[in-house]
């Protein structure tokens, strides 16, 4: 992690705490890290100009430049979102963590985002009701943007492309070792699942053709349990570095299939898909 600059920390805390911060101490603890960036919880006490001491918790996310296949500027996308008017599109019940300060270094190879610390329910602790609520809130959000077509959103240049999901699939499909493995006798995946994957693969063009008839909406594209938080009756969505234009339902598939409780997956599928479909129908933009 880049060394924490106390002046930058005080600047972020001034906005967060609503008071001019003139002195600060801090301790940092890594929350998680990887290709999407390093995330640290920074805690301590801040001294305001009126000599009042204020305890704080704030998150610092640093992202170095790297290139995702077929999506070269995704490394800076969250920074681009936070420095735009995108945050104004959220509602009281569905939003992202508030940003208190965002900056990029002079070489344009690293971003730093100081943001709100979220304390809530996430990951495998999410209940079926929370899955439904997340799907409902996402559906409302996507439907609102689809119906209103905000001009500035159309002008954002650093969004993943509508064919991102298709190209992602075709890339892995082209890997011979993946193709051969699910068809081999040595494959350790249960045979009925292998047969399902093979059937999907053999009918990929037809399936993709049906998907491409769905409405194009703003997709998060990393809509899975670790990025969803429920806190104080609100749904908060983290990590927007893969967001962009895609087909309705892409995020729904991620929510259901990506590390969900296998024993509840069928139930989640019916409950969540019903919820998001109802939202789009109510907004009269659902396309069959």
In the CATH hierarchy, what is the architecture of the largest domain at level 2? Alpha-Beta Complex
Q: Number of DSSP helices?
A: 10
| Elements, N to C (H/E) | HEEEEHEEEEHHHHHHEEEEHH
Biggest sheet overview? 6 strands, antiparallel
Determine the CATH topology of the largest domain.
Aminoglycoside 3'-phosphotransferase, Chain: A, domain 2
Terminal Cα separation, in Å? 48 Å
For the record, the count of structural domains works out to: 2
Helix/strand-derived class? Answer: alpha+beta
Compute the CA-based radius of gyration: 21 Å
Average pLDDT: 90
- CATH top level of the largest domain is Alpha Beta
Helical content, roughly?
Answer: 25-40%
Strand content: 15-25%
Label the overall shape: globular
**Number of strand elements:** 12
Low-confidence stretches: none
Topology:
Blueprint lengths: L5 H12 L3 E4 L2 E6 L5 E11 L4 E12 L12 H6 L11 E2 L3 E6 L5 E7 L4 E2 L5 H21 L2 H5 L8 H10 L2 H6 L9 H12 L1 H8 L4 E4 L8 E4 L2 E4 L6 E4 L2 H8 L7 H18 L6
Parallel strand pairs: 5-11
Antiparallel strand pairs: 1-3, 2-3, 3-4, 4-7, 6-7, 8-10, 9-12, 10-11
Helix pairs in contact: 3-10, 9-10
